[in-house]
Design goal:
Blueprint: E1 18-20, E2 23-27, E3 32-37, H1 44-51, E4 61-63, E5 67-73, E6 76-81, E7 93-96, E8 101-107, H2 111-118, E9 133-138, E10 141-149, E11 152-158, H3 159-177
Antiparallel strand pairs: 1-2, 2-8, 3-6, 3-7, 4-5, 5-6, 8-11, 9-10, 10-11
Helix pairs in contact: 2-3
Length: 178
């Protein structure tokens, strides 16, 4: 019997992008997310050969040619790109997370104010600049928020809670522009 593969469906498939004065919220699909971890520093050199330069400290990220690499822990990285990293050595503990996360894009002049209502971190443009990220929570749900532009953010939410995060963001956005 031939193997049947199920097509991945987004939990946000049923929602429409939210656009109002100075705020836009939409799903941004078309990415891969791979968590790579290891023991000691031995795995970092071959990992860098596969994905490019690694960020030096926890909470930092590095944008390379094919991947944005987040250092989410002392010996743990998230690699986001168009395709999963290839040729990772046996020293790497690899966990594909693409199908477990949704990426929500929030942008516009009110994006920082909206996110400041959602998460207990400083979203001031002088503090949370493009290229910064934070692992935090929105509505009791763990998320990673990445500042990708002056007033543009990617929010990586676990797919089981993505709709709740989406609804919270849209409700707060509607309240801000009403």
């Amino acid at each position: 019997m031939p193997e049947v593969m199920l097509a991945a469906q987004s939990p946000l498939e049923s929602v429409s992008a939210f656009t109002a004065r100075d705020i836009s919220i939409r799903e941004e699909a078309g990415f891969t997310l791979t968590q790579v971890a290891g023991f000691g520093k031995a795995f970092e050199r071959p990992l860098a050969a596969a994905v490019g330069k690694l960020p030096a400290k926890v909470g930092a990220l590095q944008v390379n040619e094919a991947f944005t690499v987040f250092r989410t822990g002392p010996q743990q990285f998230w690699c986001v790109g168009d395709v999963p990293p290839q040729g990772l050595p046996g020293e790497c503990l690899v966990t594909p997370l693409t199908s477990s996360r949704c990426r929500i894009r929030v942008e516009g002049a009110l994006a920082r104010r909206l996110l400041a209502r959602a998460a207990a971190i400083d979203f001031d443009a002088r503090s949370f600049k493009p290229g910064h990220f934070a692992m935090t929570g929105i509505h009791h749900t763990p998320v990673l928020i990445h500042c990708v532009g002056d007033n543009a953010f990617h929010i990586y939410a676990m797919r089981t809670f993505a709709l709740a995060v989406w609804e919270w963001l849209v409700d707060a956005g509607e309240g801000m522009v009403a």
